[in-house]
Amino acid sequence: MTTAPAPTRPSAAARPASTLPPAAFDWVRDLVYREAAIVLEPGKEYLVEARLLPLSRQAGKDSVGAYVESLRTSRDSREAARVVDALTTNETSWFRDGSPFRALSDVLVPEILASGRADRTLRIWSAACSSGQEPYTVAMSLTDKVKAAGWRLDIFATDISEEMLTRARAGRYSQLEVNRGLPAPLLVKHFSRRGTEWEAAPELRSSIRFQRMNLAAPFPPMQPFDIVLLRNVLIYFDTATKRSILSRVAGVMRPESHLLLGGAETTLGVDERWDRVLVAGAPVHKPAAQLGRRGA
């Protein structure tokens, strides 16, 4: 699923005061928690107002408060889903944080390819994939290596936002978006110019399957994964939800598989049934032996 609003935000002194009525903020908070299990703490009124302002203008309302009030009375489920999308869409970029992708390419994946496993399919789950930069980064990093070893690459990319998934499936990005971390040689190799946008090559897109999924809800049936990228999303959930997600993620991982979290995330103090090791500068988590393949 797409994550909640990015943690970087202007200081209280720098951001404008919110005019969102408390009742409207509370209604939005309840909606987002109910639909996505994401916690919007008090003090995020300014962010809610900024994210919903475009929707309120499209609806012809003169304020975000009036827009929210109209939703409260109309019970328009489709418009409510747009609110959840707006408040669970995070910024993303190519090769974000760097070290996790070096760990994948230089250590973790070569070990798996050398395992001699009969099932020669490398399965990777990119959870909370947003507009697709992460799964496409994984594909660019691994396609040649996996193909040379005679294996097949299968990337499963999920998000809670249908709008983001539509963008990700299209594989088209603006010049501004490709400038955010995509090296020029990889841009030229894996993308073609389409008007003012860049489109991912068919080979790159063919290894990725996109599907809507709410991480806070029960998972659909899935084949076990070798690697799970659950990055920069757990920080937006309460502890009980984090623990439930981690347990269910462990249930869809191979015994020898690897979990990569975001730089500000950890299993410590949440679920102690994980082992943590440092690989190429990146913290990598593995289900402890006693955890087995159990789900929540």
UniProtKB/TrEMBL annotation:
It comes from Motilibacter peucedani. Keywords: Methyltransferase, S-adenosyl-L-methionine, Transferase. This is protein-glutamate O-methyltransferase. Residues 13-290 form the CheR-type methyltransferase domain. One of its GO terms (biological process) is methylation. Its EC number is 2.1.1.80. It catalyses: L-glutamyl-[protein] + S-adenosyl-L-methionine = [protein]-L-glutamate 5-O-methyl ester + S-adenosyl-L-homocysteine. PANTHER family: CHEMOTAXIS PROTEIN METHYLTRANSFERASE (PTHR24422), CHEMOTAXIS PROTEIN METHYLTRANSFERASE 1 (PTHR24422:SF21). One of its GO terms (molecular function) is protein-glutamate O-methyltransferase activity. The keyword Membrane does not apply. It is an enzyme of class 2 (transferase).
